[in-house]
Design a protein that fits this description.
Blueprint (H helix, E strand, L loop, with lengths): L1 E9 L4 H16 L8 E8 L10 E7 L2 H7 L3 H11 L2 E10 L1
Antiparallel strand pairs: 1-3, 1-4, 2-3
Length: about 100
Amino acid sequence: MIQHVVIWKLVDLSEAERTAALDRFDTELRALVGVVPGLVSVALNPDVRDVDSNFDVVLISIHESREALATYQPHPAHVAVATWWGSLVAQRGAVDSEI
């Protein structure tokens, strides 16, 4: 199993815009389970502290294998979600690890 962890700092958004974007992103990411082969689970969580040095949101997805993660990245359903989300991102970081 592979754990894919991504963190983002978002562009400047109003609280309402941020909440709406996170809700939409969460819904669309969860919908990928059962659509993208090998994607086991998805969890999206906003940062709970108001600390400038923290990132704003974290994604933790679990994939059956490295090959499944490689399939997830270019999958059209994932690309569709990532494309609109990317316009809200100021910074991104990621770590993939075996679990």
